[in-house]
Structure formats: structure tokens, C-alpha cells
User: Which sequence fits this backbone?
């Protein structure tokens, strides 16, 4: 297990190094770095400072080094617009994003797993069909449509919930639901399929032959096995959400998170912030993937071969 | 064996949807008695077992009528019980073990916990006491190193040990009745012998009744006191095993007995060394079709993070064999011995690490895939599972002529005619060319697979366990078809099987494989009558004898040789045993 964890971490570090390099070259390949990195609307003095900071007048090798040095000094460069270290700007946005992401994940698990299991167990009755119809609806409705619909009903017409920002607990309700809706739909469908695969397995019959009650059979033996496949989807979905899913939701609800920051910095051509924002998201995806890898090995003893051998 | 009755079944009728799986079945089973429920697939024997456990509703079936009385404290009428009440019976008073221990055990739960679960449920044991009782249960079924096994998972154990864990789980609460549904069918013969012996011993220890479900007459003779023969859900015969074997009354029972592979029933005579085998085949009748020299196949095994610690699994370790026109070579051995790997390497479906393979005098080992393609026409394969090896979306006409089309033996216009001709040759109706694979039975599907192989008129057909998934009567028809095609066309067969009796029936010569090597080879009758290698002897001793008079006084199988380590760090190689000559064509490995 320890060796496996080390392997996962190593792979993660390597992937991240590749991504950093790719981001560097991608932002420099599309034309003159000076025009690209240093946007319009700057005084010639500011221009000079930034050119020196990023070593834009030197060779690509030295630029690359300067780019990497930005990581080492912990500032990750300077925002063109706010004139603050990028790390400080992103740090401000991290927590609000997490505050949105974590409840959304919690809500998803709390709703989708029971629904998926019910839909599998009662696949032939109306309960299963009803759950799957709702899940299909959730799949088909884009999250911004859901968000606008909720704003119209809950905020505009009924005036129960606030729309903008993250001031109070009430502010969390609509963004969390919007973010979780698509996830719930996807995970319900997936949980159902994973459970259906498992329900027909021989070991389920063995468990019943032991005299276990049906709920023990389904949760103790069934879900434990299905969790291996469910885990992979949960990981992918969360990674996807961390990467791009929250951009729309944060923009709609003016939520001061990373997604909102990415959109703003892209529009303002604040490339250092955008660059680091992209890297942060990439890192988040990598971390989620690494966690899923480790959870996989925990869930499936057959993957722990290295330990046994 | 007229013990007090334990289970009395009367008028049992079961249905799956509209299909009646069992009709008006009645039998009784005494305490300490073993009753065999015998029949081919679709006879309703497994449905009966599930009905006694009252699990048949869970599998989509229905208890239409019938009574099932279980004696004991208190006596129970199983057919009238609620699921809640049944839960206290399952795993406690009635236990069940299944055919495939790999899939019947939960792959992600430690084995010890799976046994503890039963003890917690029925005996209220918890924590350390449950663990101690689970360890005792493991020891009772003679699992070596029981304590360590408690924390292991199903995939870390061999098939035989897995089935022992299943038995330990079933017997943990000392049930009155054990239902064993084909418990040894998925196991090797030597393992089967051990598991049967174990069930017999434990039955005496615990004085339980055993309902033993099987299709194998040899196993019936080994283990059962009385037997019930089922066909299409109806009882056709019942009686003490000795009586039924000595004087089978029903025609179906006689047919089953005749079809059962029986070791020592005779093998095809070896082909003469030179000269035509039959006048029709001409002067090249005994020419060599396949020659394999020192074939080795190795797999890289990934071990952790360090790339330089390369380890290799030596699946095939220096196999040489010769196959002549019109000849069948039977390759026997237990699972994992490398016999299927040999087959795939000969067909170059996997690349051999070393060795030479010559087909019709041409070495094919070094050929590029483009140069190899014309030679692929000469060698075809028939797989074990006729359900998985036929594309369900292709009609028969495309299924059986696809190889011929690929090799340009037939034009698209001629496909239907060729398909019809092939179907006739394998004993199917010529007008079924537009049907799909699922519309055929298992035996018919295997005929389709043979027809497909024949479509390119190959010199060699590799048949990898071709009848292992079939009922005995169907298996006999398929092997008869193969023999007939061989006589007509001079085909060479490499016939791979774990079943010695089937191999004897079809093979002119046999080769016994063990740990990646051939340890004994020679004319079939000669090797089976005078086995030299300890492994061959062990294999022969383990084969169940379908004769209750003989099988009861058999000696236990002699211990086999110590298996060599096949997973080795890179430059190391497992030892190769040189073959020495015993008689004209009979060779044995020194080990």
C-alpha cells in the first residue's frame, strides 16, 4: 500500500511538471510573448517592470526559468490589474470555491447513492422508473437553466432566497443545488448500473444462503463491490466540477470563487492570474485523481497485489 | 442407510415465468445420508436446490406447489415459511455451496469476515470469539495456515482452497443439511478428489445429510448413497447408487451412463509410423503437420515501482511435440499448467519467447504477420465456450464462412452455398443459415464453431477444451463428429482438455503437461496403462470412476511432485526436465 501511494504521488508530480511546461509553451507559442503576456492599456513604465519580471527579452530558456522561479518564491507572479501577487489573489478565491464544492459533493452522495440503489433494487417497479425519469430530467437540463429557473421562482417571485454572493447560509442553497443537480443525475444512473451488475453476482446468492437479511446483502455485500466502480465516476465528476463545472455557477450567482476569477481574468487579459488559475485547477484535478487511485486500492483488494507479492 | 428422515420433498413443482422447471418431484433424504440429484443442464436440479433454500423467488422463479418438510428441532415446513423465518434456517440448519468458488465468494471482503458473518448471525458471536470460531471452521476443513488465511481475499487462494473456504462457511454452524450444487465441477481432478474426500469426512463428523447435485456419474459413484435422476424437471429414476449403476431401469439413465466418459474405455490406435493410414488419404497420410521444438512463453509480471526488478512468469517452459496428418494429440494437464498458452503460441496468437514452430514443413515462428496470414488458413481453433466464441450479431451464413472469405477461399456470392454445405457436414440443417447463434443449443453452437474452422479446409485444428462446457451426451456427439471429420479429411487435432477420460476417447497419442512442460508423452493406451511419471499417476488416480463397487475401495491419490517455482527474477530460468525413452514412442521426464 505504501509503495502504491508513493507511485501515485510520483506520477502526480510528473504529470504536474508536464502541465506546467505545456502551459508555459502554450502561452508563448501564439505570437510575440511581449504582446501576449503584457496586455494593452499599460504605461510604458509598468511594461518595463513586467518585461523584466518575466525576462521576456531573454531567451526562452531563461524565460522558462523565470516562470519556474515564480513558483519557487511562492508568489507565482504579479497580477497586471490588481498589482498583487497572484498567489494572494487565488488564495482569496480558493476557500469560497471549496465552500461551494464540498456541500455540493456531500449533497450528491447523500441523494444519488440511495436513489441509485433503490432504482436498482426496484428496477421492475414504478419506484425504479420514477427515479430514473427524474435522473434523466436532471441530466437533460443544463445547470444554468436550472439556476435561472430557481432564481425566478425562489428569489424573484417568492423572494425566499438571496441571489448574489456568499454572505449567509441562505446564499448557499441555490448554488449548491445547481452545482449538485447534474452530478446527482449522473451518479444516480451510474450507481444503478453498478448495482445492477453486482446484484446478479454469485456472491450475492451466497450471502442470502447464509441467512443475511436483504438490506445486509445489498449494503454489506452489494454496495461494497459496486463502490469500486462508483468511486471512479465520483472521482471523474468531482475533478470535472473542480476544473470547469463551477465557472458557470459562480458567474451566475456572483460567487467569489476560482471559476469567477478565471472568467474575469480572461476577460481582463490578466494572464498571470489566468495562468495560475489554470494551474490551480489542474492541480486540483490531479489531487482528486490521486485520491481516487488510492481509494481504489483501498476498495479493491485485488489492486493491492504489490503488497501481497 | 435407513436413517431417520431429514428432508421430505413431495409434489414439488417449480416454474420460471411460464416455463415449468420442475414437475411433481418427490424424494426423501435421511440424516447422515448423501443423495445425488443427477441430470444434464435444464433438468431442474439447481432449481430444486434453490427451492429448498427458498431462494428460488429471488432468482426469478416460483414455487407452484409442493411440500418440503425438514425434520429437527422444531420440525419445519419450508414451503410455508416467511422469508424472515427462512433467514434463521439458511446458513444455520440448511447450508449451500456452489459450483464456482471464485465468484461465490465476495471478492472485496476478507475471507475470515465472510465466515464470521454466519457465526454472528446464527450464534451471536462477536469480535475475538467470532474470529476464533472462524479460525476453527477453517481448521475443520483442513485449510493450512488458517490464521493467516482469515485476512486474505478470495483471489489470493487456489481454486481448491477457495472451495474449502466455502465449505467452512457453510458448515460453520453445523447444519443438518448441506446442499452442494456441482461443488467440484470447476475444479481440477486432483483437487476434486480432495474436496470430495473432505465432504465425505465432514459428513460423518457432523452427521449431516448431503444433497449433492451433479451431472458427473463418476462423482455420483464416488460420493452418494442414493441417487435421483432428473430429466426436464421430472424424476425418471430413484434408488441406491449401487442398484441404479448395476441395473439402471430408465432408458435415460442408461443413456447417461453410456455417455459418461469412462477412463479405460479404450483409445484410438496409434497411427502407423510410416505408410498410408487409409488408402483414401494417399502416400502423404502420415506426413508431419505440426512440429514444435522447445517452445517457451514467458509473461512479464509487474512488481511495484522499481523497473529493474523484472520478474518473469514461465508459463510454457520448453515444450516439443509432433502432430501428423489424421492424428489427434491429446494435451492434458490441470488449470494453470500452460496447455492453453501452448495452443495460443502455436497459432501465434501470442508470441513465443523461444522455440520453433513448423507448419507443414514451413517454419512460421519468424514470419511477419503479413507472411503468416496464408499459413493461418492451415490452422484453426475451436474454443471452450461456444456461447462466447460466436458473434451474437452475425447470422450463421456469415459466422461460419468468415474465415473462408478472409482467405479468399470463397466469394461473397458463394457464401450461402458454402455455409449450407458446412452445416450439413457438421450435422446441422442446411436451411438454418439465416439464424443467429442464440437460436442454437450449446452442442449445436460447438458444431457451428467446428464448421467455421472447417470452412478454410485447414490441416490442423486446435481444440481448446471443446467439450468441457457441454453435457456428457452432447459432448460424446461432438467428439464423434470430430473423429468422423478426421477420418474423412485427414485433419490433425491438437485436443486440449483437463478431462483424461475424454482425451482417451479421442486421442491417438497424449502428452501430459505439468508446470509448463510435457512430463510424459506416448500412445494413449500405453501411457494410461503404464504411467511412469509421478504426476501422471496422481492425475490418473484422481479421476472419478463411474462404478460404485470399485470407487469405494480406492487408494487415496499419491502425492504429486513438488512444483517448481515459475515466477522468477529476470535472468533465472526454471529447470527443464529432459525426456527419456521408455519404449518405442513413450517418453517420460526425469524429475
Assistant:
Amino acid at each position: 500500500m505504501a509503495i502504491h501511494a508513493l507511485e501515485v504521488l510520483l506520477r502526480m508530480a510528473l504529470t504536474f511538471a508536464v502541465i506546467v511546461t505545456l502551459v508555459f509553451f502554450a502561452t508563448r507559442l501564439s505570437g510575440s510573448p511581449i504582446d501576449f503576456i503584457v496586455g494593452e492599456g499599460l504605461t510604458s513604465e509598468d511594461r518595463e517592470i513586467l518585461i523584466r519580471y518575466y525576462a521576456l527579452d531573454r531567451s526562452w530558456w531563461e524565460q522558462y526559468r523565470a516562470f519556474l522561479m515564480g513558483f519557487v518564491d511562492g508568489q507565482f507572479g504579479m497580477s497586471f490589474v490588481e498589482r498583487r501577487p497572484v498567489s494572494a489573489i487565488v488564495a482569496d478565491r480558493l476557500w469560497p470555491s471549496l465552500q461551494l464544492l464540498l456541500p455540493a459533493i456531500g449533497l450528491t452522495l447523500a441523494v444519488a447513492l440511495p436513489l441509485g440503489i433503490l432504482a436498482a433494487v426496484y428496477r421492475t417497479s414504478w419506484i425504479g422508473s420514477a427515479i430514473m425519469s427524474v435522473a434523466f430530467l436532471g441530466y437533460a437540463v443544463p445547470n444554468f437553466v436550472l439556476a435561472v429557473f430557481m432564481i425566478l421562482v425562489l428569489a424573484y417571485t417568492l423572494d425566499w432566497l438571496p441571489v448574489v454572493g456568499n454572505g449567509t447560509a441562505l446564499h448557499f442553497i441555490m448554488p449548491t443545488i445547481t452545482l449538485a443537480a447534474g452530478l446527482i443525475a449522473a451518479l444516480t444512473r451510474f450507481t444503478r448500473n453498478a448495482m445492477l451488475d453486482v446484484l446478479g453476482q454469485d456472491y450475492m446468492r451466497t450471502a442470502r444462503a447464509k441467512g443475511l437479511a436483504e438490506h445486509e446483502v445489498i449494503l454489506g455485500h452489494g454496495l461494497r463491490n459496486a463502490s469500486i466502480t462508483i468511486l471512479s465516476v465520483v472521482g471523474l465528476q468531482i475533478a470535472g466540477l473542480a476544473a470547469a463545472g463551477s465557472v458557470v455557477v459562480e458567474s451566475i450567482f456572483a460567487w467569489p470563487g476560482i471559476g469567477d476569477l478565471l472568467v474575469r481574468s480572461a476577460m481582463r487579459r490578466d494572464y498571470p492570474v489566468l495562468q495560475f488559475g489554470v494551474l490551480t485547477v489542474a492541480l486540483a484535478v490531479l489531487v482528486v485523481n490521486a485520491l481516487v487511485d488510492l481509494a481504489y486500492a483501498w476498495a479493491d483488494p485485488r489492486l493491492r497485489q504489490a503488497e501481497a507479492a | 442407510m435407513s436413517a431417520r428422515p431429514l428432508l421430505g420433498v413431495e409434489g414439488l413443482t417449480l416454474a420460471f415465468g411460464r416455463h415449468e422447471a420442475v414437475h411433481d418431484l418427490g424424494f426423501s433424504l435421511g440424516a447422515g445420508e448423501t443423495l445425488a440429484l443427477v441430470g444434464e443442464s435444464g433438468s431442474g436440479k439447481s432449481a430444486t436446490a434453490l427451492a429448498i433454500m427458498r431462494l428460488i423467488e429471488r432468482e426469478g422463479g416460483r414455487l407452484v406447489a409442493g411440500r418440503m418438510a425438514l425434520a429437527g428441532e422444531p420440525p419445519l415446513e419450508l414451503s410455508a415459511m416467511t422469508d424472515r423465518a427462512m433467514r434463521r434456517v439458511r446458513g444455520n440448519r440448511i447450508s449451500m455451496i456452489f459450483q464456482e468458488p471464485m465468484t461465490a465468494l465476495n471478492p472485496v471482503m476478507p475471507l475470515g469476515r465472510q465466515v464470521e458473518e454466519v457465526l454472528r448471525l446464527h450464534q451471536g458471536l462477536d469480535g475475538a470469539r467470532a474470529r476464533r470460531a472462524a479460525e476453527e471452521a477453517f481448521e475443520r476443513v483442513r485449510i493450512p495456515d488458517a490464521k493467516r488465511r482469515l485476512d486474505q481475499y478470495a483471489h489470493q487462494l487456489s481454486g481448491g482452497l477457495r472451495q474449502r473456504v466455502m465449505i467452512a462457511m457453510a458448515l460453520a454452524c453445523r447444519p443438518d443439511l448441506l446442499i452442494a450444487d456441482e461443488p467440484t465441477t470447476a475444479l481440477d481432478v486432483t483437487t476434486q478428489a480432495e474436496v470430495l474426500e473432505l465432504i465425505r469426512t465432514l459428513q460423518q463428523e457432523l452427521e449431516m445429510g448431503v444433497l449433492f447435485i451433479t451431472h458427473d456419474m463418476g462423482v455420483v459413484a464416488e460420493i452418494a448413497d442414493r441417487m435421483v435422476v432428473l430429466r426436464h424437471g421430472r424424476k425418471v429414476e430413484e434408488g441406491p447408487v449401487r442398484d441404479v449403476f448395476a441395473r439402471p431401469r430408465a432408458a435415460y439413465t442408461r443413456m447417461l451412463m453410456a455417455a459418461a466418459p469412462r477412463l479405460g474405455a479404450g483409445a484410438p490406435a496409434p497411427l502407423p509410423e510410416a505408410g498410408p493410414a487409409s488408402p483414401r488419404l494417399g502416400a502423404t497420410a502420415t506426413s508431419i503437420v505440426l512440429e514444435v521444438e522447445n517452445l517457451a512463453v514467458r509473461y512479464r509480471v509487474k512488481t511495484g515501482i522499481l523497473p529493474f526488478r523484472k520478474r518473469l512468469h514461465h508459463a510454457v517452459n520448453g515444450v516439443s511435440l509432433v502432430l501428423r496428418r489424421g492424428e489427434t494429440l491429446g494435451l492434458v494437464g490441470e488449470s494453470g499448467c500452460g496447455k492453453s498458452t501452448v495452443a495460443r503460441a502455436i497459432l501465434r496468437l501470442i508470441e513465443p519467447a523461444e522455440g520453433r514452430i513448423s507448419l507443414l514443413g514451413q517454419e512460421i515462428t519468424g514470419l511477419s504477420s503479413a507472411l503468416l496470414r496464408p499459413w493461418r488458413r492451415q490452422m484453426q481453433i475451436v474454443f471452450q465456450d461456444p456461447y462466447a466464441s460466436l458473434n451474437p450479431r452475425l447470422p450463421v451464413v456469415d459466422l461460419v464462412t468468415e474465415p473462408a472469405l478472409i482467405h479468399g477461399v470463397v466469394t461473397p456470392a458463394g457464401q450461402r452455398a458454402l455455409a449450407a454445405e458446412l452445416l450439413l457436414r457438421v450435422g446441422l440443417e442446411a436451411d438454418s443459415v439465416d439464424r443467429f447463434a442464440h437460436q442454437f443449443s450449446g452442442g449445436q453452437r460447438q458444431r457451428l464453431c467446428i464448421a467455421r474452422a472447417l470452412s478454410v479446409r485447414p490441416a490442423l485444428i486446435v481444440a481448446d477444451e471443446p467439450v468441457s462446457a457441454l453435457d456428457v451426451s452432447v459432448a460424446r456427439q461432438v467428439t464423434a463428429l470430430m473423429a468422423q471429420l478426421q477420418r474423412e479429411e485427414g485433419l490433425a487435432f491438437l485436443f486440449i482438455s483437463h478431462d483424461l477420460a475424454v482425451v482417451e476417447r479421442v486421442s491417438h497419442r497424449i502428452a501430459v503437461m505439468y508446470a509448463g512442460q510435457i512430463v510424459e508423452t506416448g500412445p494413449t493406451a500405453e501411457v494410461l496403462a503404464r504411467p511412469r511419471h509421478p504426476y501422471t499417476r496422481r492425475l490418473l488416480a484422481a479421476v472419478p470412476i463411474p462404478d460404485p463397487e470399485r470407487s469405494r475401495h480406492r487408494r487415496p491419490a499419491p502425492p504429486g511432485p513438488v512444483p517448481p517455482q515459475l515466477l522468477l527474477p529476470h535472468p533465472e530460468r526454471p529447470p527443464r526436465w529432459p525426456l527419456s525413452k521408455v519404449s518405442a514412442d513413450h517418453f517420460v521426464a526425469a524429475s
User: Anything to note?
Assistant: The longest helix of chain A spans residues 214-252. The mean pLDDT of chain A is 82. The interface with chain B takes residues 3, 6-7, 10, 201-203, 205-214, 220-221, 224-225, 228, 299-302, 306, 308-309 of chain A (CB under 8 Å).
